[in-house]
């Protein structure tokens, strides 16, 4: 077992709590840096997708997991970022500038959606974001001069002032740099007063308000940051697929994103990436297991949905903290061996109270 | 004249939205959670009726009550098996859970060989009948929808207003712990509500089947019923119907007078405006916590 002796207040907000963490995250970073030489091209592409979805997941995690605001239309922000990037790169803008614009435009859209969020909560907020998602999808399909409509739009390779990241390996590194930067950014944000304010709002709006937290400002900020990350993810997504069409940003994509962070583990930064790993690897697993299933099941178009549904139900019922929560339990078991007790992570019995009376 | 005809078709479409929204409101009013599986329950109800009539050869008038009973039992079993274990947890868990249930139901239906992936028509006796009155035409299917919606809404409203059961359900949703203290069997009530909601959903499915078709993705219409529930105020049964009518009429008028594309998103624009102007909906009760 490891005992941490606290001799300094700075220890509480240090990013790496002890040497072990520094070692393992360093190793992970090394492995990710070496990945293009270690894994075949197909798996590198999947890894790139994991990084992209991880960035989007970070944004949604900030909003849903840390501020307690659930967005059911997050694919719309993804789409805003993707189309902005596609349009600007089509005009010949350099990649970093276009990316910044995509993030800024998504953030603006997030602020816009955040406006009703200041007045409504719970399911009403879900409804507002869901409606926004549908409207944006329709705009993508109808605004043909910019988006190419339902026929879709091609996206050029990222262009860094002359150097083009057009190979799979170079684009992987672009994604890796952005993913690491945004992860560090989120971690930093969460240990700053702003991040603490988000968590306070999640835990209780009334207490947060009485501690002097300006609810409207912080909720809008959370929406904007979350949308900006989703927009950046969308921009990378557009470059990776090289072709975007409105149906990639529909309600199913939004629900996939929600599913990703719930399965990854709400309220943990790890959860965003674990969820992305799940979301990307699941179709492969299903495809592999198709050979050993009877024909009626294997050929059914709803097989993937069924598996997602079952996994989602199982996580909500048995592991509400998601994959990260499961890892926490395994880690605690290993650290405390043989003194782990069964009830250590037991869910507290709670009684629901009406939202209407809050 | 054309305007009136548009209104009529809007009303009948709106009644379907209202009918599905009734299911949402029912669950929300009694358990303060939102079921995203309502559309899929509706789809399952339609398939259940179809199976009874085509495979087992039931006549229509026997198939309908049989479907209602079967779906009601299914709702109760569903609640017992997956919803009850997380009773009392935050509402968002239930939302994710019901999204999962919806995925599973849709996936399972597509796995029925030869039936699940096709579109079917439900053989109803009142097909192809229509009432015409001075140049206005009302299909019998639409008339049945309107009548059934009115009856169901009235019955449920009376139950929540006047019966002990309904009042107990409202109490359980407002404060679970206090409801336990008052001797209300909260768990059993929740099971009952889910059964009732599944039965209402299957009514919607059976009524919708002659107008659209029966297929695995028909549950997506549930996404249009959400705006209806929100516009009416989520906790109000008559509100669900009025919200459904508003959405239906706006949709039908915007499909005719506005450029193409507005028809599909009219409902969502209405609901966004509603949330900005009057977040509690038309009939939502304004409650304030007194400190």
What characteristics describe this protein?
heterodimer; A: 358 residues; mainly alpha; ABC transporter involved in vitamin B12 uptake, BtuC; two-stranded antiparallel sheet; 4 strands; globular; B: 291 residues; two-stranded antiparallel ribbon; 11 helices
Question: How would you summarize the topology of this molecule?
Answer:
The complex is a heterodimer of chains A (358) and B (291).
Chain A: H1 19-38, H2 41-66, H3 74-90, H4 95-117, H5 123-142, H6 144-147, E1 153-154, E2 159-160, E3 163-164, H7 168-190, H8 193-203, H9 205-210, H10 215-241, E4 243-244, H11 251-264, H12 269-289, H13 295-298, H14 303-318, H15 322-336
Chain B: H1 2-31, H2 38-55, H3 60-83, H4 91-110, E1 130-133, E2 136-139, H5 140-162, H6 164-174, H7 176-181, H8 186-208, H9 222-232, H10 237-257, H11 262-277
Antiparallel strand pairs in B: 1-2
Describe the structure.
The complex is a heterodimer of chains A (358) and B (291). Chain A is mainly alpha-helical and 358 residues long. Chain A has a single domain (25-276), classed as ABC transporter involved in vitamin B12 uptake, BtuC (Orthogonal Bundle), CATH 1.10.3470. Chain A is 69% helix and 2% strand. Chain A contains 15 helices and four strands. In chain A, strands 1-4 form a two-stranded antiparallel sheet. A two-stranded antiparallel ribbon of chain A has the order 2-3. The mean pLDDT of chain A is 88. Chain B is built from eleven helices and two strands; from the N terminus they run ααααββααααααα. The N and C termini of chain B lie far apart (55 Å). Chain B has a two-stranded antiparallel sheet with strand order 1-2. Chain B has one domain. Chain B is mainly alpha-helical and 291 residues long. Helices cover 70% and strands 3% of the residues of chain B. In chain B, strand 1 (130-133) and strand 2 (136-139) form a beta hairpin. Chains A and B meet through helix 5, helix 11 and helix 14 of A and helix 4, helix 7, helix 9 and helix 11 of B.
């Amino acid at each position: 077992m490891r005992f941490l002796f606290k001799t300094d207040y700075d220890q509480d907000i240090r990013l790496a709590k002890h040497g072990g963490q520094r070692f393992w995250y360093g190793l992970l970073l090394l492995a990710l840096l070496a990945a293009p030489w270690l894994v075949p091209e197909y798996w590198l592409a999947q890894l790139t997708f994991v990084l992209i979805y991880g960035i989007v997941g970070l944004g949604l995690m900030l909003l849903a997991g840390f501020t307690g605001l659930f967005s059911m239309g997050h694919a719309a922000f993804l789409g805003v970022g993707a189309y902005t990037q596609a349009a600007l790169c089509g005009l010949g803008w350099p990649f970093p500038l276009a990316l910044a614009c995509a993030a800024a435009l998504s953030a603006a859209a997030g602020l816009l959606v955040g406006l009703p969020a200041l007045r409504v909560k719970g399911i009403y907020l879900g409804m507002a974001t869901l409606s926004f998602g549908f409207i944006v999808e329709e705009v993508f399909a109808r605004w043909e001069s910019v988006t190419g409509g339902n026929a879709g739009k091609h996206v050029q390779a990222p262009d860094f002032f002359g150097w083009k990241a057009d190979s799979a390996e170079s684009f992987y590194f672009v994604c890796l740099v952005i993913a690491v930067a945004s992860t560090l950014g989120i971690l930093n944000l969460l240990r700053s007063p702003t991040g603490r304010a988000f968590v306070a709002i999640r835990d209780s709006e009334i207490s947060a308000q009485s501690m002097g937290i300006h609810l409207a400002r912080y909720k809008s900020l959370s929406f904007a940051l979350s949308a900006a990350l989703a927009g950046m993810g969308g921009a990378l997504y557009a470059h990776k697929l090289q072709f975007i069409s409105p149906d990639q940003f529909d309600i199913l994509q939004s629900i996939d994103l929600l599913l990703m962070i719930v399965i990854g583990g709400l309220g943990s930064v790890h959860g965003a990436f674990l969820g992305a790993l799940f979301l990307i690897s699941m179709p492969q697993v299903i495809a592999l297991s198709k050979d050993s299933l009877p024909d009626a099941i294997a050929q059914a178009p709803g097989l993937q949905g069924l598996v997602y549904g079952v996994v989602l139900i199982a996580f909500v019922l048995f592991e509400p903290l998601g994959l990260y929560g499961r890892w926490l339990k395994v880690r605690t078991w290993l650290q405390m061996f043989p003194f782990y007790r069964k009830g250590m992570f037991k869910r507290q019995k709670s009684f629901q109270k009406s939202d209407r009376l809050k | 004249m054309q305007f009136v005809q548009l209104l009529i078709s809007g009303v009948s479409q709106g009644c379907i939205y209202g009918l599905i929204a009734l299911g949402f409101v029912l669950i929300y009013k009694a358990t303060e959670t939102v079921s995203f599986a309502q559309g899929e329950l509706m789809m399952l109800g339609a398939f259940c009726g179809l199976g009874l009539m085509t495979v087992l050869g039931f006549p229509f008038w026997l198939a309908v009550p049989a479907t209602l009973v079967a779906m009601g039992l299914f709702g109760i079993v569903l609640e017992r098996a997956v919803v009850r274990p997380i009773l009392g947890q935050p509402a968002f868990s239930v939302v994710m859970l019901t999204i999962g249930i919806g995925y599973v139901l849709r996936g399972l239906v597509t796995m029925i060989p030869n039936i699940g992936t096709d579109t079917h028509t439900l053989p109803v006796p009142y097909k192809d009948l229509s009432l015409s009155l001075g140049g206005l035409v009302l299909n019998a299917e639409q008339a049945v929808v309107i009548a059934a919606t009115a009856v169901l809404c009235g019955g449920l409203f009376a139950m929540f207003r006047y019966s002990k059961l309904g009042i107990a359900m409202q109490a359980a949703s407002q404060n679970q712990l206090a409801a336990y203290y008052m001797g209300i069997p909260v768990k059993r009530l929740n099971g009952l509500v889910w059964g009732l909601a599944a039965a209402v959903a299957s009514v919607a499915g059976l009524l919708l089947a002659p107008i659209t078709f029966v297929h695995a993705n028909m549950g997506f219409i549930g996404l249009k019923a959400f705006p209806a529930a929100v516009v009416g105020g989520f906790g109000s049964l008559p509100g669900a119907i009025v919200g459904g009518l508003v959405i239906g009429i706006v949709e039908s008028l915007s499909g005719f007078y506005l450029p193409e594309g507005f028809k599909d998103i009219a409902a969502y624009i209405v609901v966004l405006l509603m949330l900005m102007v009057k977040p509690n909906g038309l009939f939502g009760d304004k409650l304030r916590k007194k400190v």
